[in-house]
Amino acid sequence: MKATALEFRFRYLIHAVIYVLGFTTPWNKWLHLDSIRTWQWLAAVPSRAGWLSFQSATVAVLIIGILCALIAASLRTWAAAYLDSSIVKDASMHGNQVVAAGPYRFLRNPLYVGTIIHTFALALLMPPSGALVCIILIGLFQLRLIAGEEAFLTANLGETYLAYRAKVSALIPSLTPRVAASPIHPRWPQAFLGELYMWGVVIAFAVAGWRYNSFLIIQGVVVSLGISLIARAFIPSLQANPQTKA
Fold first, then answer.
1. 1.10.8, 1.20.120, 2.60.40, 1.10.3470: which CATH number matches 5-238?
2. CB burial class (10 A; 0-12, 13-18, 19+) of residue 1?
3. Lesser CB count within 10 Å: N end or C end of the chain?
4. Is there a contact between 53 and 61 (Cβ–Cβ < 8 Å)?
């Protein structure tokens, strides 16, 4: 079930392929399925049931999208603040000590959970079949990445990491810290820079969403991705006192 080193190395490319499949849904043409967006489909459900008007339901789904994007960006930025963004983006696994600080006191894998929540936001912009396929594939891939990375950390850290795993949940955050805090100070500038794409998606939903035009939000997502790729060139200059990933 765990991801291979090759999968981990090319994880961002694999994510991109899955998202592109979700947006393009080539099987829709083969199966003659409707290309309506999930946002519209979800809004139509309470509207047809008479619970809300279609306009109110559309606004409700938009708010859900904004919240998912915001929670994902916040969680990933919080996690990246206690790591180096260069490590978060690195093609290789790292780990020579347990980082039990920030969100890692409540949850073992905040970066992966953030990606899953982010996927729910993007899925609203996809056709329903694409959204379903994307959510399933991204979810399964995150589980494979978690299994691979945790096996690596267990092999490197042994009982120290096993004790941490026994106290902190992998995917469901606790309401209170489960372990004592590591003496690590957050570095917010590099964290925000490293997660610039995530915040761009939040802005795209919050600004373009009120035009009720999924295509405008998708354009904002693409622009955010482009800006974040450029910004990655500046990440190393903000690195200081690098920490290991755990």
1. 1.20.120
2. exposed
3. N
4. no
- Cα–Cα dist 165/135, whole Å: 26
**Residue 36: which of 131, 120, 128 has the closest Cα?**
128
pLDDT digits 0-9 by tens, 162-215: 999 999 999 999 999 999 998 888 999 989 999 999 999 999 999 999 988 899
Contacts of 123 (CB under 8 A, 6+ apart): 22, 38, 130, 131, 134, 135
What pLDDT is recorded for position 152?
Answer: 93
CB 152 within 8 A of CB 93: yes
For the record, the structure tokens of 54 come out as: 């279609």
What's at 147, amino acid-wise? A
Six token digits for residue 2: 């765990």
Residues of the chain with pLDDT under 50: 237-246
For residues 220 and 201, is the Cβ–Cβ distance under 8 A? yes
